[in-house]
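Sequence in, structure out.
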Amino acid sequence: GGGAAAPPPPPAPGRAGPPPAPAPAAHDFEVWRAHGHHEVPDTVDPDGAYYPHVPLFAGLKVLETEGKKTGKFGPANGAVMEKLIEAGNLLARGRLEHSYPHSWRSKAPIIFRNTPQWFIRMDQPLKSGDTLRETALNAIDDTAFHPAAGKNRIRSMVEGRPDWLVSRQRAWGTPLAMFIDKQTGQPLHDPEVDARIVAAVAEHGADIWFTAPDSDFLGAHDPARYEKVEDILDVWFDSGSTHAFTLDPRLPEHGYTGDRPAHWPADLYLEGSDQHRGWFQSSLLEGCGTRGRAPFKAVLTHGFTLDEKGEKMSKSKGNTTDPLTIIKESGADILRLWVALVDYSEDQRIGKQILQTTVDAYRKLRNTVRYLLGALADFDAAERMTDYDQFPPLEKFILHRLRELDAHVRQAYAEYRFQDVVRPVLEFCSNDLSALYFDIRKDSLYCDRPDALRRRAARTVMDEVFARLTAWLSPLTPFTMEEAWTTRFPEAGGNCLRVMPETPAAWENAAEAARWAKINTVLEVVNESLEAARRDKRIGGALDAWPTVTAPAGTFAPFDGLDAAEIFRTSGAELVEGEALAVTVNLADYPKCARSWRRVPDVGSDPDYPDLSARDADAVRYWDQTRR
C-alpha cells in the first residue's frame, strides 16, 4: 500500500529532489516487484526520515519538517546522490520545476512512503460464493440509473478498480478499532474484546479508542503482545455506511429505543455525477459486502449550476444567484419550478432572464388554477354528472386528455423526469384548456341556466381537471397548489397529503382526440381570419362575426352534431363545401343580446325580456323564479 507524509506548509511549492528508491513511488515499487522482490521495504518513517535500520542513510530526512528550513531539501537527498556516484550507478541528475507531488490543500511538497494498510479484497469469494466485484456488478445491473448513462460509468469503474484501500493515517477520523498479534501479525478475533470496544464507543464516542488504555479493551489478554491499530477509516467508507444507520432500525442493544420501521434499501440515492467514484460506489460496495446487494433501488445524478453564460459561479465575479433572494422576490415555488424545468442530467444555467421564463410558466399554471376556482364556485355533488355518455363531445375530449396526461405524469414522476411532468401539463393548460376549452365554455358558464346539461357537464369536467392539476403539481409547486386546494376545500386537509386521484380507463377516447385534432385544423384558419378582421377594424370582436367557411368534401365531417359557431366563438357560422379551406368574415347582422353579446335572430323573441336571446331569456327567468 502507499501513504503520504506531509510536513507543515512551507513558504511556497517548488522543487523536489530525487526520492530515495525503491520505497517512495508506485513506479519504483513496480520495478522492485518486477525484479523478483515480494517483500515491502520499510525505509521512511512518519516524519520523512530514514528508519534507523536503513544502511548508510539512517536518520537522514528527505524534507525538513521543522524550523526555518521547513519544506526544503533534507540531507538525505545529497547523501543518496553521493552514494550513487560512488557506486557508479547514477545515470544523470538535474532539477525539474513541477507541481506534483504536493498537497492540493496546503501546497506543501510530499513524499510517498511505504506503510502497512488495510484493504478490502475485490476478488475474494464472499459467503455467497461470488466475489465483492461480481456482487457489485450484479447489483449495478439491478439498479435503475437516471440518466441511464450513469450505469455504464459506475460499472466500468467497478470492473477495473483495484482492491479497496480503507485505511488512512490522519489525526482525526473513525478508528479501525483492532489489535494485531505481534507474534503472528494477524488481527485479534475475540467477541468479548469486540463487545468492550462497542460498549466504550457507544458510551464515550469513537475517540475513546485513542485515549483509553489498551487493557480496558483487552481484558485477560497481555497488552504487551498486541499492537493497537491507530489508523482511521477512509472517509468514503464512513459516508458509504450511512445507509446502515439511516435506513435500518437501531438495535436495542445499541441504545436505540424508538420504533422506526426499517426502510432498506433506499428508494433513491441523489448526488452529483462525480459521486460515481465516491459516495455511490462506497455505498454500493458496503451494501454488497454486508447485505449482498446495493443499499439503493435507484441512483439519480445531476449536473452543476452555472450562471446564464454557462460560467462557474463565483462571489469574486459577482455572478452568483442566491436562492434566498429568488425566494424573497418571487417565492419558493418559482425556484422549485425552475429546478423541475431544467435538464438536471447536464449542467444547468440560472439567472434573471432564465428565471423570467420560469415566472411566465408559473403564471400560466397559477392562472389556470385560479380560473378553475372561479368557475367552480358553489359546485356540489348534486350538480355533478356521472353518466359518461351524457357528456358533450368537447367534454369527452378533455376527459380523454386527462386520462392521457395522468398516465404520462405518473410515469415521468416514477422515472424522476420532472421536465416531462411540467412541460406537458403547461401545454395542456395553454392549448387544451385556455385556448380551447375555457374559451368555448365561457359562454355556457356565464349564460346557461345552472341546471343546463352543457353547463353541468362543463363544471363536472372542470372539477376533475382541478383535482388532477392540484395533485400533479403538488410536489413541484406545493405552496401554490396548497393555497388553491385549501381555498376551495378549507376543511378537507392539506393538499400535500393527497395522492393522485385515479383516472378512469373509460375516459380514454381516441375517436374524440382524432375529431378535435381535425377541428383544430379548421379552427386555426378561422381564428387567423377573425384576427385579421379585428386588425382591419371590420369587427370589434368575434361575436360580431358570422363567418362562411369553405373546405373540400369531408373536411366538416368532424363538426357533425356540433355547433360550429360555438367552436369558433362567433354569433353564427356557415360551413360550405368548396375547393380549398378558406374563410370569409361576414358581419352578424342581428340584434345584440344584452347578456351574452351574441348577435342572433331570436333576440327579442321573448316579450318579457326584449333585449335578450331566447337562451338568455330562459336563464334569467329561471333565476328570477328561484329567487322568489
